[in-house]
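re: that chain from earlier
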Amino acid sequence: MKVLNRLWSDEAGFIVSSELVLIASIAVLGMIVGLTTLRDQVVAELVDVADAISTLNQSFSFSGLTGHSSSTSGTAFQDVLDFCDVQPPNANVFAECVTIVDAGASG
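^ sequence. v structure.
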């Protein structure tokens, strides 16, 4: 019982609540900065994926086939431009329908 009483009244190594508030504040600020950077990078990658998908050419065609007792005629499909496609495709130009706005930018 004396050991328990001695441990209960021991003040050595005690963490003051103000130290905990300071550490928690620094951790929260670091998490905000980190999560904001993560959000921006995820959006940038999703824009890259959307740009790659928008430049896919869906045109196809095949000529007619003739077998021993049957035949098929050929067919073709031409992909038309969507409202936000860039013509001609350029690696340095993003599609007009994707807009990235930086909330921290001044201007």
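The chain has a mean pLDDT of 76.
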